[in-house]
Amino acid sequence: MLSLYIHIPFCYHKCGYCSFNVIPLTSLNQEPAPLITSYLDALHRQIDDFATKLGDQEIKTIYFGGGTPSIIGSQEMIKLIDHIGQVWKLDYLEELSIEINPDPVDDMLELIQTISKHYKNFPRVRFSIGIQSFDNEVLEESGRQYNFQACVDFLRKLTKVRMDHNIFNFDFIAFGKFNTTRKGDIQLRDPAKLDFFQNFVESEFADSFSLYTLELFEGSAWFNQQIANHNYEKAGFGLKKYGTDDDVYAEFELLKNIILDAGYQRYEISNYSRSGANSIHNRVYRAMDERLGLGTGATSHLKQENLARIIPDLLLTTQHGALHSGHISIVPDLKRFTAGTRIDEKKTELLSETDFLKEKFLMGMRTMDGVIIDEQARKEIYQAYLLQSSQTEILQTFTEHHLAPMTTLLVDNREEKIELYEEQGLCECNGVSLKLTDTGMDVYNSIITELME
User: Fold this and answer.
1) Residues of the chain with CATH 3.30.750.200
2) Mean pLDDT of 184-189
3) Using an 8 Å Cβ cutoff, are 225 and 237 in contact?
4) Per-residue pLDDT tens over the stretch 267-288
5) Cα separation of 145 and 107, whole Å?
6) Architecture of domain 2-284
7) In this structure, which long-range contacts are made by residues 262-266, counting pairs with CB atoms below 8 Å and at least 24 apart in sequence?
8) Which of 118, 173, 244, 284 could link 3 by a cystine bridge, Cβ 3.0 to 4.6 Å?
């Protein structure tokens, strides 16, 4: 099965921390409507183009990301989804996901209601809602186009439009916004908003949460300010009195514990959910399943057979061996995309079996399931479970994580390191599978760096 990612690059205003491929409408020196129309027309043409090559595939998930996908409105979004349904099979679609903001409140509620009702036969219509913070200062200085009261208004009204097949995910970022009280206590500068966050989480209205630490990458305004001012220490540089990386992680830990204490389970490094509400589309990425990206800058991962349909004269070998799969990217430039250019050849990456396994290891370790690292032991256990029909859930886990040998990807003294991590409470390993604990996930980068060759 194939999953689709559709990129809508437009947003009202680019946030200070954002490094994504977006086009802020406030930066345009022209009326935005014709530009958006031109982009959507090109997107429809790309759907037709790729469908002629991969139209026999059944679609597992559809994900609208950006940018701000809701900026095109519910009707244009329906046109895109219906077009996809005309050229691809949606009989077994498991999830439709759409990224939205909480404002403009009425527009967002209309979109949620319209999409949910129009696709009432879809098993799951998921909305990922980018609140990011309840703190007005954070919202203002980061460039978000709403305030705390708008969030409250949105959430109150959202409770009245929910349908049975809706999944509501809420995004938050730990900005590290602390100060010291007169008594010397360290606290968030607006503790009332922390109380509101806790009450919201404990209400169990949310199906899931995404919680990120503030990280600045090339392409964001705040990153550029850091470079210009030679300030590499402060994660929140550019914000009044914001703290260091330690402050960011302290706030992350605070928010994370509120979510966990309310009964949500961590299923990936940045994601938490109630039972059965995990993002299915995210699982596609983590399992290195096939996905096709549509729109400017969108990336795909395709196995050899489908990759060959997209790229003429595809080389069947890589510098590390026979071709297994590959990553392709769509050109990020809007003019080139609307003019008909599709693949960004400079960013095409061909993967051998070893390359693929490395990426699958990195992705799998970001999940609470972890990875299977001993193929022979896995096969023996797998055969045992085949004889036990009552173990269907365990069997499904093994089939979903059907991995070839991975031990060769790790450093020679891997057993020693893994044993140390277990003693420190950072990972769990039974000789067949390896996964990080909640504490281990918080230091994922350090562990992976030490384990990989």
Assistant:
1) 2-284
2) 58
3) yes
4) 999 999 999 999 999 999 999 9
5) 14
6) 2-Layer Sandwich (3.30)
7) 262/201, 262/202, 262/204, 263/204, 264/201, 264/208, 264/209, 265/368, 266/368, 266/438, 266/441
8) 284
